[in-house]
């Protein structure tokens, strides 16, 4: 079995017409931030594993080095994700070729691990999604997946129906996890939809005056369990975003910080310590650049963001639509976007920003085929 340590560029950036993986994304593969003991992501991983170890000693097996390049069967089909589901589009997912993708969730490993007859497991890894840009979104982030299987002897005599029994165990387990990480936080459950669970629910926690969604979960679709593990059982599954939890727990204001190699960031966290609070070590002024254009027919914001990230790398902080109008005569639509440049690590010069912005403008015309105004 291949691990995430040995990845060649030619395996990922291929000549396939469907290929949409950029160098910025390729550079992240194999970094495995979650395996660094003193990194905030590694600290959260350990804390979650420790919680499962305490509640079910020796039961949960942790997989943390599964190959992040998977088939569309693993990422979608085996999870019963419908053929027309948006997550399959190349606007949302990174395709290596027609049937290979960078996993967009750790659920991509559920079916294979069930076939290998693992009964209780956790999977942590980097996942990849094309998305818009802001302080909490980055095209690579980390998820932890959990699966637990139940036997008839577990629910029989409980006085509950089997689905109800499993769902109650799931809620109790995850509320316990939230308390283990955050102390006494307020939790609430909301209904959700995932093709691979039924019923599906989401856990939200109250933080900084806001309800924040921290994980999705549910009772595993019976077809997935029957077909891969064996009949007569029941299971739950959950998937949570590690950055999301770490930003809340450690007061980390910007998701790009997780990728920083700056000592002033890394030195603030220590294995086993959930109590550190991030102290910002520098503030550099942002620089705004606006760009207005008539959009092309197949223009999408994700494509725009991918282009900007490809040129500016991590000095882009935000891309936001600030104006939009349609010309009734020509039928053309104009968008004005504000690109905010700011480095986490240094002051940017006007010269540097102007040169990046010029490249962005050319790329908008050449790659996205929009008409600059
Ligand atoms: N894979 C889902 C996501 O990424 C989360 C999830 C996992 C939901 C397992 C239900 C069960 O959003």
UniProtKB/TrEMBL annotation:
Parent sequence residues shown: 81 to 453 of 453
A Gene Ontology term for the protein's cellular component: mitochondrial matrix
GO molecular function: ATP binding; phenylalanine-tRNA ligase activity; tRNA binding
Family: Belongs to the class-II aminoacyl-tRNA synthetase family.
Residues covered by the FDX-ACB domain: 282-373
Reaction catalysis annotation: tRNA(Phe) + L-phenylalanine + ATP = L-phenylalanyl-tRNA(Phe) + AMP + diphosphate + H(+)
Subcellular location(s) of the protein: Mitochondrion matrix
E.C. number: 6.1.1.20
Enzyme class: ligase
Domain spans labelled Aminoacyl-transfer RNA synthetases class-II family profile: 44-286
Function according to Swiss-Prot or TrEMBL: Is responsible for the charging of tRNA(Phe) with phenylalanine in mitochondrial translation.
Coiled coil: none
GO biological process: phenylalanyl-tRNA aminoacylation
Chief location category: mitochondrion
Protein name: phenylalanine--tRNA ligase
Keywords: Aminoacyl-tRNA synthetase, ATP-binding, Ligase, Mitochondrion, Nucleotide-binding, Protein biosynthesis, Transit peptide
Statement: the UniProt record of this protein carries the keyword 4Fe-4S: no
Superkingdom of origin: Eukaryota
């Amino acid at each position: 079995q291949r691990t995430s340590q040995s990845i060649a560029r030619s395996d990922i950036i291929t000549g396939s017409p469907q290929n949409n993986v950029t160098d910025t994304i390729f550079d992240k593969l194999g970094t495995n931030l979650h395996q660094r003991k003193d990194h905030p992501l590694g600290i959260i991983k350990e804390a979650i594993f420790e919680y499962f170890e305490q509640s079910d000693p020796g039961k949960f097996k942790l997989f943390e080095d599964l190959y992040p390049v998977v088939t569309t069967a693993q990422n979608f089909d085996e999870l019963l994700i419908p053929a027309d589901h948006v997550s399959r589009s190349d606007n949302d997912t990174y395709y290596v070729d027609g049937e290979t993708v960078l996993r967009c969730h750790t659920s991509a490993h559920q079916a294979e691990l069930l076939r290998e007859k693992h009964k209780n497991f956790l999977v942590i890894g980097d996942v990849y999604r094309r998305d818009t840009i802001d302080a909490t979104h980055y095209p690579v982030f980390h998820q932890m997946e959990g699966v637990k299987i139940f036997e008839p002897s577990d629910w029989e005599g409980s006085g509950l129906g089997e689905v109800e029994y499993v769902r109650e165990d799931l809620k109790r387990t995850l509320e316990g996890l939230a308390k283990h990480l955050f102390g006494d936080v307020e939790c609430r459950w909301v209904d959700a939809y995932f093709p691979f669970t039924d019923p599906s629910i989401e856990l939200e926690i109250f933080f900084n005056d806001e309800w924040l969604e921290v994980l999705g979960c549910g009772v595993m679709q019976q077809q997935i369990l029957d077909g891969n593990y064996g009949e007569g059982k029941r299971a739950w599954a959950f998937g949570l975003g590690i950055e999301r939890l770490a930003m809340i727990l450690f007061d980390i204001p910007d998701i790009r910080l997780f990728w920083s190699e700056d000592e002033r960031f890394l030195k603030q966290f220590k294995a086993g310590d959930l109590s550190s609070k991030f102290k910002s070590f520098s503030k550099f002024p942002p620089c705004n650049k606006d760009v207005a254009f008539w959009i092309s027919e197949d223009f999408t914001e994700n494509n725009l963001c991918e282009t900007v990230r490809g040129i500016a790398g991590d000095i882009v902080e935000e891309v936001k639509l600030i104006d939009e109008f349609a010309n009734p005569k020509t039928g053309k639509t104009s968008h004005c976007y504000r690109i905010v440049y700011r480095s986490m690590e240094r002051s940017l010069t006007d010269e540097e920003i102007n040169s990046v912005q010029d490249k962005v403008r050319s790329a908008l015309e050449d790659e996205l085929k929009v008409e600059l105004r």
